[in-house]
User: What shape does this take?
Amino acid sequence: MIKTIKLLPIIAFAFILTISCSSDDAGGGSGTTTPNTAPTAVGQLTYPSSDLLCIDNTINFLWSNSTDADGDSITYRLTISLDRNLTNIVEQLTTTASNRTVVLQTGTAYYWNVVALDGEDESEPSLTYAFYTEGDGISNYAPFAATINAPASEAIVNAGTTTLDWTGSDVDTNDTLTYDVYFGDTATPVLLQTNHATSTFDVTTVAATTYYWRVDTKDNNGVKTIGQVWTFSTN
Assistant: This one.
């Protein structure tokens, strides 16, 4: 009986120590972290503006500042490409300023956007703008690649009649644009309509199918710009 009484304080101390350790582990203590917040997207591309013909091939790219809710330092990734979906990249630069000067080739169509980064996360990309650098002796420029309006890329829509909607543009404002429309359920859509005069086209779709479409833009001098392939699915 005497031995049992002497062991009680030791057992009580061990029990209290176990509870204390368990409480610290469950609460996370000072190890709790707050998730990082990505910077806001760049809201405005100031220069070159959309569809601009630049008379100089030394371009000072300008855009609006992003903000970061965590107060992190922000850098910007400027991407310049030869295609609207930014896969044929000619320059990709990082800067802490909201501007960057780049020397480009003359007589060329370019596409650009900006992404903000805070060291851990990045913002959604800005809009993508197109511009031309003026070339010596060029009297006619190729149209820009068409931009998608609807259905949005990788959207899910109701089956039936679907209206393909896009925007064409050209720095030669007097040019009349026409379109070759490609559409189908394979990754290489077939040509449905040539020299289409408007920027919408109705197609018939069936349920539970993925469709692919492309629009090539032509001016009245016969100069053609190949568009990118977009996709959408039906319910």
